[in-house]
Amino acid sequence: MLRHGKSILYLAAAILLSLPVVSCRSTKNTTHTYRPYHERRNRDTAPHDEATPNTDSQKPVPGGYGLVDEKWAALDIKLGRHDNKKLYKELKSWLGTPYAHARQDKGIGTDCSGMVMMVYQEVFNIKLNRNSAKILEQNCRVISLDDLREGDLVFFCTSNDERVSHVGIYLKDNKFVHASSSRGVVVDDLRQNYYATHFHAAGRVTTHK
């Protein structure tokens, strides 16, 4: 009887050892890719030009762009020899400006289109429309995401009517600068869930159509 019991224990142990090891840790890739807004379904909605993303979406997204130059650390990017340093310097000077509707005053208060308009005027001597939807309609040509380069504009639809209601300036490595209604002028990543979901189009400024 004892020998029979040991045989059963050995058999049970052998079966357990033969089972695959399953980890509790999820292996699902949670990095979001962004695509044209009209391809999206089940969007979140926001009452303002930009809602506050959850804290998880604010965590840095690995970009593989190497060490960040201390001088440009606030922009969370690494500049190359041929990058437009005048553009980056101007954008850096806007960081931390509080959000203020219908304002465009550096360090005092600005909204998204106000900041974009002032940066383009200072860096490129180009006057843009004061409204984000009109900037896309009258001052830009739509480009593909693969064609994005520094200084291009990224547009978002953040309301139920699917009209363009938010704009930012693209840097590189998926980063862009914009005036958040809750955080002021900040750097964010297009792959963050909120921005990936509400992304509408990328545009290159051509002044007038």
Q: Helicity, in percent? A: 25-40%
CATH architecture: Alpha-Beta Complex
Uncertain regions: pLDDT < 50 for 5+ in a row? 15-34, 40-68
CATH H level, superfamily name: endopeptidase domain like (from Nostoc punctiforme)
Radius of gyration: 24 Å
Largest sheet: 6 strands, antiparallel
**Strand order across the biggest sheet?**
3-8-4-5-6-7
Our count of helices gives: 5
In words, what does this structure look like?
The protein is an alpha+beta fold and 209 residues long. It has one domain (37-55, 67-205): endopeptidase domain like (from Nostoc punctiforme) (endopeptidase fold (from Nostoc punctiforme)), CATH 3.90.1720.10. The chain contains 5 helices and 8 strands, in the order ααββααβββββαβ. It has helices at residues 2-18, 85-94, 112-124, 132-139, 193-198; strands spanning 104-105, 109-110, 140-143, 153-156, 166-170, 175-180, 184-189, 199-205. Helix 2 runs antiparallel to helix 3 (112-124). The longest helix is centred in the first third of the chain and has 17 residues, at 2-18.
Layout: helices, strands, pairs:
Layout: H1 2-18, H2 85-94, E1 104-105, E2 109-110, H3 112-124, H4 132-139, E3 140-143, E4 153-156, E5 166-170, E6 175-180, E7 184-189, H5 193-198, E8 199-205
Antiparallel strand pairs: 1-2, 3-8, 4-5, 4-8, 5-6, 6-7
Helix pairs in contact: 2-3
